[in-house]
Amino acid sequence: MIHYNPKSWFSLIFHAYSRQVFRKLLPAMGAMGAFTAGICYVELEVLERPMEVSNVVHSLLGFVLSLFLVFRTNTAYDRWWEGRKQWGALVNVSRTLALRIREFTPNESAHEHFNEAIPGFVKALRDHLRPNVPGAPIPPEAAALAQAQHVPNAWAQSMERRATALLVAGELTDQQHWLISQNLERMVDILGACERILKTPVPYSYSMFLKKFIFLYVVTLPIGFVATFAWWSVPVVMLIFYILVSVELIAGEIEDPFGVDDNDLPLDGLCKTIEGNVKEILERL
Length: 285
Prior knowledge:
By secondary structure, this protein is an all-alpha fold. It has 10 helices and no strands. It folds into 2 domains: 18-79 and 202-254, no CATH class; 86-200 and 267-283, no CATH class. Helix content is 77%, strand content 0%. The chain is elongated, with a radius of gyration of 27 Å. The protein starts with 8 loop residues before the first helix and ends with a helix.
């Protein structure tokens, strides 16, 4: 995730990320510029006069396209923000669970187990949400859980079993066990919410149609622009193409907030925060 100062207005214009997007789109912009130059050559050099085409249609279609892009970016940001809220809730639930274990029972073995299991669940969730990103080496003590088909579930189950064992041993009251179980249930709910975001992308038909709409809109722009801008149509069309496709590109990046792109959520940092908080709570004298 990119950290920046939102009040530094001019520095954001020339931020490295803008150059990164420009480099990514440069081949397509070059192709669009060459296509526009070809249209300009035909109309200005081959034909007796440029074709007089009204821009009313493009104006109307541009309004419709702007609505589509607004909906696209809002949908993508809603997924990003929902993911951030779920991980923020996970930070709070992890702290609460560690506090309850620390204060409900003096069992040092239980403290050690949850000191490992809570960060283990969080890191397993992070890796579970990044199926195509190689994870960090697995500690030997967690190797057995790492072989599970659904690793976050295995960590949650290990914590539930340990809490039940403390209840059976009389080290927890029914009320205390219920409070701990509520935290564990909330952690599993967060797991399910993150899986819903990950496995429910924007509908294919909508994404496909928007890309086709942008392509057809930009490809037909030179036909009507040559009579007005002549050879200046080349940079004008390239600029419009850059703006429209950049918005779609950014929306496509943030709609999956759990990856490792520049604008994705800082899951590694959140994992370190939870691990540090839990360790401080459970190891405090």
